[in-house]
Amino acid sequence: MAQYDGFAEQYNQLVKQGGPTGPEAAFRYIETQLGRLADVRGLAICDVGCGQGELSLRLSRSGADVTGVDLSSEQLAIARGESDRVRWVLDDAMELGTLPDEAFDFVVSSVMLMDVSDHAKVFRASHRILKPGGAMIWVIMHPCFQSPFSHPLGDGSRKVLDYREQFWKSGGTGTIRSTLGAYHRPLAMYINDFMGAGFALGRVDELDRLDTSVDVLPAHFAAIGFKLPK
Predict the structure, then answer these.
(1) 48: exposed, middle or buried (C-beta count within 10 Å: 0-12, 13-18, 19+)?
(2) What is the pLDDT of residues 83-111, one digit of tens each?
(3) Residue 194 contacts by C-beta under 8 Å, 6 or more apart in sequence?
(4) What are phi and psi of 206, to 5 degrees?
(5) Rounded distance, CA 153 to CA 9, Å?
(6) What is the tens place of the pLDDT at every residue in 134-166?
(7) What is the distance between the alpha carbons of residues 111 and 203, in angstroms, rounded to a whole number?
(8) Buried b (16+ CB within 10 A) or exposed e, 21-36
(9) Would the pTM of this model clear 0.90, i.e. be above it?
C-alpha cells in the first residue's frame, strides 16, 4: 500500500523478526494451503499487497512463477533488492490495472485487506485476473480477537468492546497504526463481499496464535474461494 512509504524499513524489520504481531502465521497458512491445493511449480501466483516481498520470495523458491504487487514504491525497492526471481509490479490492489484477465492460477493476500478503503474492489480485481478454476487465499487480522476494540484480560480470554465497521487509529505516535490507521470490518462483511465478487467459498479458518503468552484466541482469519470454470 502506498501509505507504507515512510514505514517500509520498519515493516521490513517486523517481518524479518517474525514476532507475534507480524505476518508469519499468515505466510505459513498460505504456503500450507497452496501445497494442499496443487503442486505450485510452474504455476502463476499473484501476491496482492506483497509489501516488502517475503511471501512472494518464499513462493518463488517453491518453483512458482510469482508476481508481487504493491502500491508502495519503498516496499517494492526492498523487495527488488532481495530477489529478481519475482516480477515486482507497482499497482493498486483495488484495480490491478496492469495485470491481464485470467492470467493467474492463484491469488494470495496476506494481512493487507484491512489497509484498503474498499476490500470488495480487491476481491473483484482478484477474480478478474484469476483463471477459471483458480483460487484466492486471503488472511486478515481477526476482526474480533485481534482488533483495537479487543483487550486481553490476563486469563487467556478477551473483552470485545466494539464490532462495527469503522476506520481507526491506535494511540501513541510514530507507529504504523497510529499514523496510518486501518479499516475494521466484521467477518460477515468480508465473507459476503468475497462471494459477491463471484467466488465460491471453499473453506474458512481461524488460525492458532504462534505466541500464546497473551491469550489463546485466534489472531488471524483466513478464507479460500474458487473462480468457477466457465
Answers:
(1) buried
(2) 899 999 999 999 999 999 999 999 999 99
(3) 123, 136, 138, 201, 223, 225
(4) -110, 115
(5) 32
(6) 999 999 999 999 888 888 898 888 999 999 999
(7) 17
(8) ebbbbbbebbbebbee
(9) yes
Residue ranges of the chain whose pLDDT lies below 70: 1-8, 11-12, 18-21, 173-179
Instruction: Give the whole-angstrom CA distance, residue 30 versus residue 36.
Output: 10
Nearest CA to 58 out of 36, 100, 84, 27 is that of 27
Q: For residues 118-150, b (16+ Cβ closer than 10 Å) or e, as one string?
A: ebbbbbbbbbbbbbeebbbbbbbbbbbbbbbbb
pLDDT score at 56: 97
Closest Cα partner for 28 from 94, 83, 110, 91? 110
CA-CA distance, 41 to 200, in Å (whole number)? 24
Average per-residue pLDDT in the chain? Answer: 91
- Name, in order, each residue with C-beta under 8 angstroms of 149's C-beta and a sequence gap of 6 or more: 160, 161, 162, 163, 184
| Per-residue H/E/C for 78-105 | HHHHHCCCCEEEECCCCCCCCCCCCCEE
Which residues in 56-66 are b (16+ Cβ under 10 Å) and which e?
bbbbbeeebbb
Q: How far apart are CA 135 and CA 131, in angstroms?
A: 8
DSSP structural state of residue 114: G
Q: Cα separation of 88 and 84, whole Å?
A: 8
